[in-house]
Records
---
Amino acid sequence: MDTIDWSDFEKVQLCAGTITAVDDFPEARRPAWKLTIDFGDAIGTRRSSAQITDLYNKDNLVGQQVMAVINFPKKQIGPFMSECLVTGMVREDGAVVLVAPLERVPDGSRLA
């Protein structure tokens, strides 16, 4: 396993944000949702594609906080431009479990 320096870790901006909208993404190669995430006034709203349809539906995602990397470059995913990377853990069955704070924190809070 490669190790990184503290300065490398500091470059990754992992922030909490609240999902405000979930849209279908029928063009995705693997089932996915288009998420709109509010990261607060300082960062603003970002969009992301997330392959999390196994465990999450539109109704239980809106209002949920997630952790996302907000300083990756934008990435074109089919007809959709992803502006951040929502984080998750892959279970043995392949389903992705979202990473989120255990308690509500202000949107835009950075992982400490």
Note: Helices lie at 6-11, 58-61.
---
Amino acid sequence: MRKIYSLTALLVVTLLSSCDLIGGIFKAGAYTGIIAVVIIIAIIIWIISRFRGRG
């Protein structure tokens, strides 16, 4: 199994330039962060609306 990971890592390093690889990582991270923030805000709004509805 370790050989597969090593081979995959070697393939990624040789086929992708470092700029493309880093750009892809940051792009995925940015999208994930935006989605996480939207979900957290939606949960907070939902919790606040639940408490206001009981009053």
Note: The helical segments are 2-15, 18-54.
---
Amino acid sequence: MRLTTKGRYAVQAMADIAAATGDAPVALPDIAERQGISAGYLEQLFAKLRRKGLVVSVRGVSGGYRLARASRDIRVSEVVEAVDEEIQTTACGGKSVGCQGAGARCLTHDLWDELGRQIDLFLSAVTLEDIIEKRVTGMAAVNAPTNFNENYKLGAAE
């Protein structure tokens, strides 16, 4: 399972705006330079973010984009969803198709399906403010097994 660049770049750019000081709009070329993302690609993403009401555009010489709501009120899941990014963890083309065609599901289907739900829950729990205030580390450990920290360090098995 992999989150594609659309979702990652949209979250990076939105966090960049959230981290900007003051209420002044942030220009896409500035975001592009700081984040190492093509300005043209950002334009496509920001058109979608604007349509979904996550950013507002400001025209003019010192124009750019501002968050439409406070960073504490914008969830990462909203940003990913706004750019039409569906995180799919199963091989199914839909509930009626099944992983193996003709409605049959693979042996590990429920594992990957539940992983998708956990990703959705996690991204729904994280706000842009959490990202810029560096509060994301450790958030996934909320539902970790009690001996998780004893067996794993920084996400890698010993």
Note: DSSP finds seven helices and four strands in the chain.
